[in-house]
Amino acid sequence: MDSEGIPRDRVEHPLGLYWTAQDFTHQQVRDRKFEIIEEVCQRYDIDGIDLNFMRHPVFFGHTMQGLPVSAAELDIMTRLIRRIRRLTDARGLERDRPILIAAIVSDSFQLCKNVGLDLETWIEEDLVDIVIPGLGYAPFSLPVDEFVGLAHRHGVKVYPCINRKAPQQLPEELVAEGFRGITANWYAAGADGIFFWNLGTPFVEKIGNDLIETRNRYYAALPDLRSLRTLQAAARDGSLKNATMIIQISGMTETGKLSLSLNNQNLIEYQTVDVSDDSLRVSCHLNASQVKQGNNVVQVTLQESGVSPNETVQLNQVRLLVRYGP
Q1: Are 124 and 92 contained in the same domain?
Q2: Which domain CATH number covers 283?
Q3: Whole-angstrom Cα distance, residue 205 to residue 29?
Q4: How far from chain centre, in Å, is Cα 87?
Q5: How many other β-carbons are positioned within 10 Å of the β-carbon of residue 248?
Q6: Is the predicted pLDDT of residue 1 greater than 50, yes or no?
Q7: 119 and 253 housed in the same domain
Q8: Count of domains for the chain
Q9: pLDDT in tens, 293-317
Q10: How high is the mean pLDDT of the chain?
């Protein structure tokens, strides 16, 4: 990355180690990336290449300044992707077997454009075969349906990412449940498969009756809660044990006149789970009819806060824990 105006000390720079990033406006940078891909395609019998634009998403000087890239910079990166596609197509014809291109990209089409990735054009021009949106750091807010909507119209597959080492902020025993929950959402939204990143500890495999306990799931999101496997169906077949919504609020330690609603239905009965120095968690048991398939809107109203006007009360987290059993 060009150094003008950018501190050389990564501790001083707000983007830390990114000051060492290479600027793709330079032809030498693009040529070097292409040469590496070219050598791999020519020397090895590969099935495809994975272009990881999330490690790390700094390709142009504007990004280092906290600004969206220019239209010219978007075009620079797209021309590089076209060049790579011509390479893989030619090599695929030579060996009579295609070389697929997968791209790991930012969490939305707009975020992609902000850093120089014109993903919509890539999809529409058949420059990629597989899109891997996000890298698993914000799975519950990932708009998989938006990626699927465009990608599937052009024959492109969508594989959202599970990142085993992403900060979970929940007990270890619930991590796998969260992955099952979000995976159920993604498949219902049309995902073609799942991409694993930083898998770490493998998931526990069980069969038969032992599988029942592994079906528990949790769902989390802010500002809305999304569940794509209907709880009504599970209630009808007897597999739903219970569903509990847990809400975390910072800036207060007493519920006071806290009012909760889900999909415009008031939730009268709730209880405090725990209280810390500046936050509290409350839980509310739900029945299957209160949670709908798709987006579920949670509303929290503080009618009597007991806090001073200078303090901030903030809704930090919403989780839905679903327990299945015989």
Answers
A1: yes
A2: 2.60.120
A3: 44
A4: 30
A5: 19
A6: no
A7: no
A8: 2
A9: 777 888 888 766 555 566 677 888 8
A10: 83
Phi (first) and psi of residue 70, to 5 degrees = -85, 165
CA 30, distance to chain mean position in Å, is 28
Cα dist from 148 to 66, 157, 159, whole Å: 29, 8, 9
Reported as half-sphere exposure (CB side, CA atoms, 13 A), residue 100 has a value of 11
Residue 254, classed as helix, strand or coil, is coil
> Does residue 202 belong to any structural domain of this protein?
no
**Closest Cα to residue 184, out of 248, 231, 238?**
231
Residues 187 and 220 in one domain: no
Average pLDDT on 164-181 reads 70
What is the extent of the structural domain holding 234? Answer: 215-324
- Residue 253 forms part of a structural domain: yes
Least confident piece of the model among 16-25, 170-179, 200-209, 316-325: 200-209
Mean pLDDT in residue range 8-16: 56
Percentage of residues in the chain having pLDDT higher than 90: 41
Task: Rank 62-71, 166-175, 202-211 by mean pLDDT and report only the highest.
Answer: 62-71
Q: Give the separation between CA 228 and CA 211, rounded to whole angstroms.
A: 21
* Rounded CA separation 278/199 (Å): 34
In-domain check, residue 54 = yes
Q: How far apart (Å, rounded) are the C-alpha atoms in residues 107 and 138?
A: 8
Q: Which of 168, 197, 226 is the last residue of a domain?
A: 197
Q: What token pair was written down for 269?
A: 């009965």
* CB burial readout 36-56, b (16+ within 10 A) else e: ebbeebeeeeeeebebebbee
Instruction: Specify whether the CB–CB gap between 191 and 163 falls below 8 A.
Output: no
Tokens of 66: 């906290």
Boundary residue ending a domain (154, 170, 197) = 197
Q: Are strands 48-52 and 100-105 parallel, antiparallel or unpaired?
A: parallel
Q: Is 131 inside any structural domain?
A: yes
* 291 vs 18 pLDDT, higher one: 291
Segment 5-16 shows an average pLDDT of: 55
**What's the pTM value of the predicted model, to 2 decimals?**
0.78
For residues 44-64, average pLDDT? 93
